[in-house]
Amino acid sequence: MKHNLQKLSLLVGMFCMVAMAWAQEYTTLPQQAQRLRNLANSSNMASLKSLTKTLGGKDIWMLTLGKGDAESKPAIAVVGGVEGSHLLSVEMALRFAEGIISDHSDVLDNTTFYVFPNMSPDAYEQYFAALKWERSGNARPTDDDRDGRLNEDPFDDLDGNGMITWMRVEDPTGDWITHPADSRIMIKADRSKGEKGMYKVFTEGRDNDLDGTFNEDGEGGIHFRKNLTYEYPYFVAGSGEHSVSELENRALLDMLYTKWNLYGVFTFGPGNNLSSPWRYNRAGASKRVVTSILNDDAGLNKYLSDIYNETVSLKNAPDSGEQGGDFLQWAYFHFGRLSVGTPGWWVPTVKDEEGQAANKDKNREVNFLRWAEQEGLTNYWVDWKEVNHPDFPNQKVEVGGIAPFVMNNPPLAKIGDAARNHTDFIVKMAKMQANVQLVNLKTEAVGKGMTRITVDVYNGGTLPTHTEMGTRSRWLQPVKVELSLGNGQELISGRKIQTLRSLDGDASVQFTWLVKGSGTVKIQAGASHAGVDSQTVNLK
Amino acid sequence: MKRYISKIFAGLVLVGLALPGISFGQNADEVFRAAGSPHNPKVNIAFNRYYTAEGLAELSKKIADAHPDLVKRISIGKSYEGRDIWMLQVTNFKKGNPERKPAFYVDGNIHSNEIQGAEICIYTAWYLTENFGDVDYITEVLDDRIFYIVPTINPDARNNYMKEANTGSSPRSGMMPFDDDRDGLVDEDGLDDLDGDGSVTSMRRKSDYGDFIIDPLDPRKMIQIGPDDVTTAQRYELLGSEGIDNDGDGRVNEDRPGYYDPNRDWAWKWQPDYIQGGALKYPFSVPANRAVADFVLAHPNIAGAQSFHNSGGMILRGPGAEEDLATYNRADLRIYDAIGEKGEKMLPGYRYLTVYKDLYSVFGGELDWFYGSRGIYTFTNEIFSSFAYYKNERPDRNQSYDFDRELLANDAFTPWAPYNHPTYGEIEIGGFKKNFGRATPGFMLEEELHRNMAFALYHAHHMPKLSIDKVMEKDLGGGLREITAIIKNERLMPTHASQDLKYKIERPDYISIDGVSVQAGMIVEDLDLGITTEQKVNPAKLEVANIPGNGTVIVRWIVSGRGTPKITVDSAKGGLITR
Q: The domain B466-578 is classified under which CATH number: 2.120.10.80, 2.60.40.10, 2.40.240.50, 3.30.420.10?
């Protein structure tokens, strides 16, 4: 009976999951929490905990996917919501977790996943607010323009449509013109081609504090991906007073730094080193403060990128949106882990139709409008409409433009197989992980009561045990090779404990010891992020 | 008998500590003032010895209890092991708003074995409070300024240094445990005080192949044998610091408490461990550092800061890292140089130096965070140098041995003595004790504390001191008046360091007028030529980016109405004044 009940609840849970997985709307924070709880309740392979609450009072969730002694298996962290306005990245992380439990639970035999689906919950909520604008900052009150006044110049919904879009002001001193293929889209005039600007373009709002700048100090806050230590931007709006100042940043890092079994970090967000890999730059890699991926790691990144492009089949990715203080780069440059990231989806490139002006410069906004039209999207565009603007009493001011959020967060029905393909890719990455084994064990009798032991420490995985960067970090353990002696045994030659900085995929190193005595000794080799193997050896 | 006496003595000490410090320490008839020092203080403190974390906490409490109108003692946070990080806030609390006075921050002992800073801090609080009311300059200083004094920001490891097996250079770290040798075990092979003298000294062993002999004229000293030397004396080999291979991994003393460097933990241009050895997870991973940073962020009135280390006799300014050279700009360096060069005069044997080029190039230091991130002029002093032994710029290389014998009655050296070592067999252990070499010897300590305090007070003296020096009125007719005010800063530091102005770290200064109806407001660029810049929005509250050091800002309003104008200057680092 009890068994049946469990089964039933499992079924109900599965049903909820399926229902949720097919949800066509971005989920609210309470819905996300419910989805995570459902997953944790329905499966003994998933457990949920809240790392902290943000200043806005929102939970930062951590979902562990694993079997048995999950903490002792090599692990990948999967992180979403690093950019608060990218709701899709949260959805992708959630679908990944759900997909592992429903379709790929076998991968948990050897790999553990720590899923942090939403690192920017304070900002995320703005999507559901009465006034929609693309928010990246958390709930901390910040003086973004550092003038001593707090939030004194926010956006203003001049056209009253509940969204913040753009303003264009007809002005011969402006730098902007309309795009030749679609006059709705504003682009910068190219003076080298003799183009003359006809508009000024601002975000929608008034210069509330009359300081000559529009909307430069509104509500919120500090951006999760501007507050980490790698190339931290000082004194920039959204970066905070110092790196890792925010509760959510600190909570995540504090957790990651306890996970010695982590070898990889996968980030859903604007940064993309999977569509095209990071490039090695000798000068940047050889400075004291390293600013380039290291050479071996560039090769590794290229290899993973090729597999990604085969698996995910999304073309023409937008330029990677890395920035100082972000998470994707931090996980590699300062945490030493294999770090890969992608937005997970972007607007497909639409072919110019007959009768349409060609989108010669492949303008992404023009392309977006054409795609949205083709797909029958609604509410993605606000027609330019003239408003009376008190800051421009004698000029023509229009409000309009692409609606907030829509370019990076399409209706979920439009993302096709993107979520499943990304789950497949992460599973492939897991199956390539380093796997330290003891092979070719040999014992020989030497002289009177002495045994020579020889063994190869072999990495049976495809990935190296350490990124080249990881070999430099004190936060990754080296591969440790240890011989444990029993009573009455003596080590004549060789060391009890030895370490290897790294072991490439399919590579091995031979170790040998000379032991005097009888009985058994134990050899153990590995690192918690690269697998550990041990063997008991009978002395001759 | 002897034990009995020592018990009485301990009892007296306890009573002494428990006495409320309100009464004077000595009958006034019994003492005669030495110039510059409190002659009959309410709190008697011996400044020829060092204090543990608990000793410092008790002294700070006594000072606070004895001077309730001058001292507030608060805990700004807890150390890793849960000790309070005590801060003494010293000012005349009866006069002005303490939160709005220009503030000077001082701490010591971030490196746990670099102990003098804590005693400098205690001495400073003691000196200021005991001289208040007696010495006009000190009274004025406490009327105008506030001092935030944190004797130790590493109390856990301070105690470890004093009570456990250490050299003069260990532990330096704090006490958070880490796996230094990355073998999966934490702090499993630290130093060992094998001979029980309270210090980790050196190990030597007789060896036919050794490179050292004992100095025939001084058995404490080892002499290295040169390639052409011929000796018939017993040869020795040196086996490093006192210790054993506790974990049996074939290495000695390789995983000690810590190890990290609390002075690589600060957020300005912070870099991780593989770039900057000693760094932790991210800035302010050390709880005590975070407590200081949070306090400083919440106290924009801090205009100057000082941290105390040892040793080498240095007055250090940033940048810590060569890569950060551009942060320290010319305008601010003029101020650093003026104070630092004065320090060289006040502290004989000390040199004014720049960390990255004269010491080492490092990221994540405290002084760089104070300046780079907060625009606070900050020095680090490396207390004590070998100059002090014989006041000699060119010290004899044997002078430590001479000094120990001639002035310290051989108290600083543990004579070599045999020891049976589990790995090395019959060896000898001996050497200078941990309280010699970096820590100032007792009889010189008060002078060291005083001179360093005087340097900090000089630095604090030059924090901005603002006044509304002149207010001029002119009738413009038609019911309009022109009111011109000259705001003066009579000290070296501006209200905003040049680094601060560059990044708008602190808000502008506000100069506002009340009691009249303001029609227009402007900054006067040139009084004689009448060149002004109008502030169109909210002219009653003029925003001034900076009030320069030893300089003035002139403001003007055109007002109507008959009221008497009241002018207010509101500066985060310069204070709040009205006229």
A: 2.60.40.10
